[in-house]
Amino acid sequence: MTLDAATELDSVPPSADRPSAWLLVVAVIAALILGAVAGVLLLRPESTPGNASAEAGFARDMSVHHSQAVNMAFMVYDATEDEEIRRLAYDIINTQRAQIGMFSGWLQQWDLTQTSTAAPMAWADHSHEGPMVSYDDMPGMATDEQLAELEAASGVEAERLFLELMTEHHRGGVEMAEAVVPLTNREEVQRLAQTIVTGQSGEIEYMQDLLAERQ
Amino acid sequence: MKSKRSVLTGWVVLGVVIASALTACGADEPAAPTPAAQPDAVQLGEVVTFPDLTRDHSEDDIDYPQSPPVGGDHDPAWLDCNGVVYDEPVRDENAVHSLEHGAVWITYQPDVDAGDIDELRAKVDGGQYIFMSPYPDQNAPIMATAWGVQLAVASADDAALADFVQEYSQGSQTPEPGATCDGGVML
Q: The complex's ipTM?
């Protein structure tokens, strides 16, 4: 407030000024209260995903999916001395293991259990395909026989088998990540799902090059 | 439930209207002068963003449009980037892979003040998802680069540099969240 304005206010007779000043005070208090209410409503955290939500299903199923990738990567890491394959395996082990930690962290923050009794992929509404009874039915999962074959293989044979199995596994991972994007508006889920789509798509391309070099 | 919500909405709207009216009443004070635009060739202290970067693996040498590069295709092997101080220039194609993994790359012109280099070294050495190297071809004394973002500063103690590291080391721009900075290649 400038000096002039203050002088001007002082010169106005108090009796004439009072009512409008009170009105202003009441209006300011009302505005503050309403503003606070609006703030609480606007900033209130959204309710977190529920037990049967797509987000929870994705987090749980993708953890299982990633775990198999980590296991296969360990197998090929032990089965070959090839530097490129071992680096790819090392990358997959670390990245997907860290992402499993992110899925687990979401479920903890949402106050949900890490596993559920829901059928695999039930969250993705693949009803036309019938209910899945086993995690092995999830897109791109290797069978127990294929895993045993990889475990038994060594050298370039193990490398080829790994690249083939991991390519299929990544294609399935991309399919699952793409499935959750339209089903969620949670930023952390969309962001990680998108990075899985682009990251694993890129790795599929790279693995095709590595496979071609080994034919 | 619905009617309760619409009543609440009504109050909120009323509150916002009153609040804006009061704000408008108080708005006759002179506005602060807008700072003049800085016409520097290299914008110091401003984070520049580079969208839509490709990210395929390639063992070829790549001609990147920025110095240092901010992203794009890269070598299958990432450069070790957990607090590593490289005293010689590193290979762009490996360093870009480290950016993809979420690292911040601190670079400096080789003739920059020795005290600045020591200060950068102290910030980087032993850290996580951060590495540094000299970069003779860059157009600012000190630069910080993460995937798709870059900052140029004049000195190591510029607060914008610390802010950049905090924001972008494993930041939300990271294309591969969770990827590691260990187990790659050294120089």
A: 0.70
